[in-house]
Amino acid sequence: MASKKELQVAQKRELEKKEETTIPARIFVPNADIYETKDGLNVVLEMPGVDKNSVDVRVEDDVLKVDGKLDFSKYKGLQPVYTEYNIGHFSRSFRLFGKIDQSKIAAELKDGVLSLMLPLAEKAKPRAIQVN
Q: Which superkingdom heads the taxonomic lineage of this protein's source (predicted)?
């Protein structure tokens, strides 16, 4: 007959084994590209499979922050053998400079790509000055 301590060790091993067979929570950093246009900047982030309701975009202290998660509940009950797919929470931050009009930043998530439009402030846009 097993002692109480042996039973506790066996239970602990079972729990550890169970934890090893589930998809671990991860934190990942989505790939980003930044493009310059005549009207401002366009920040593009890859996030395939992410629902727009799972993304939080905000500006705090001149920093553009993008946080969210790729919910893996759709994989519930599946036993991963091998996966490279990003699952879990993600976060990216971009320091804004004074030339961006923070009140007009827009975001769109389409086909797994989050596009953030950062317009230049009117005073920062290039303009021609007439020579008298």
A: Bacteria
